[in-house]
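If your schedule permits, I should be very grateful for your opinion on a structural question. Thank you for your consideration; the sequence and its tokens are set out here:

===
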Amino acid sequence: MKTINGTLWKQMLESGANHLANKSGEIDALNVFPVPDGDTGTNMSMTFSSGVKEALACSSDDVCDIAKVLSKGLLMGARGNSGVITSQIFRGVYQGVEGMKEVNGFQLANAFVQGSRVAYKAVMRPVEGTILTVVREAADYTYAYASETGEVTCLQVIDKFLEEARESLKRTPELLPVLAEVGVVDSGGAGLVTILEGFQSALNGVVIERHEKDETKTAAGADMENDEFGYCTEFIIRLNENGMRHFKEDDLRKSLARIGNSIVCVQDEDIVKVHVHTLTPGDALNLGQRHGEFVKLKIENMQEQHENILINAEQAKEEKPKSRYAIITVAAGEGLKNMFHELRADYVISGGQTMNPSTEDFVSAVKKVNAENIYILPNNSNIILAAQQAATVCDDQNIHVIPSKTIPQGLCACIMFNPDVDPDMNLSEMTDAISLVKTGQLTYAIKDTTFDGMEIKASDYMGIKEKEIVVSTPDKMEAVKKLIDSLVDEDSEIVTLIYGEGVDEAEAKEVKAYIEDTYHVEVEMNSGEQPVYSFIIGVE
């Protein structure tokens, strides 16, 4: 196969997207920390599927036109660091095939090199041993091979690229010791290899199909006109050991009823199928992921058509004057959202550790706040790149992404915002504020492992100080108290205690009393209602 035309290129993309969706749960499980927030596979799958959906709808048969549409779709749909980097890889691929109706083997190899270069430029501090290393090494080796071979076919290029990507992926633990200790390879690199496997299969005549065909789509569609606008959220999870012991359909159904309607929840042995219409799809996914790993998930925006009508109607009216300032932030849990609103946040995007917002989510929020100066607080290290990418898309507006990596950092930055000072002063004060708070989080382990020499058992409560696991024990209260001891010192003045789902007020008050009895600090206690993390603790 000497060249790839538009039809074959679409088949490759579809096969790669389906294969990634099928294996997203396995990729999620490569998470280094044994916490229920492994989402690299999910983020990459949602990102790539978003772009491929647009590419398949492209009417052109030219490879360059399809690649351009793919690049735009990936850009807007990018979620998490892995998703943003994936979008940049294929942005570079588009640049490499620009103006080409068909692509030969050498041109394809060159496009992958361009993809790796663009991806590296998109990351301020590239880390070796990640997807960046895998794409760079594989692309460089493949380009050298294509140059030496002469008339190389597209199948030969993909075969070589996949071979080198697999070898590079195997070497990632040598570059990142934390991967070696936990016994995994880089999850983003694994996602890239999975996409390439889909490409290879399509070139060999077999377009990989997506597993678990949707069984609720017809029923859901019949009820749509009776539902409020929101997101049609569907997922299938495979119950883990803990889920098999404790999962109850009625309990999950009741939890879903608090955030949505049109609910279908069916268990078949270790498989649970869920459908819900909700305004907060991230919360629905959080509820499901507690019990196992995703086999499949799909989120469709039922609001989009309705919002377009409203936007057009609004444009017909006199445009509302822009406000001087707006703060956009990210949080999961009604309590956390209320805390941010009370601290002058204008728009809170639903999301966080297990549901990273897309670039498009940020762009939409920017349009809604209608302000001259906008500050974005991602509150998660895996969301910062998507926020920065949104700021690039909205380059005609004055947007500042303040790199808050935790909820306490975001709250602290909001406290320092002053509507009466100039934009640069606010940026400086808010950015400085995030360095003044230490963060601790209590969650549970999803598997047995060893991290930094600490033995961790599945279902243990783990206390995480910044990025360090400081305690792992079956006792929740023991774990949170040891976590607090690691955070509070003689210089500490204020402790913000935020308790989440699964923690009752009596437990929270016991923790508050422990802090007050042990340390000379002021304690502020709030119900964040956040999933995954029993306690989030900020110390200033």
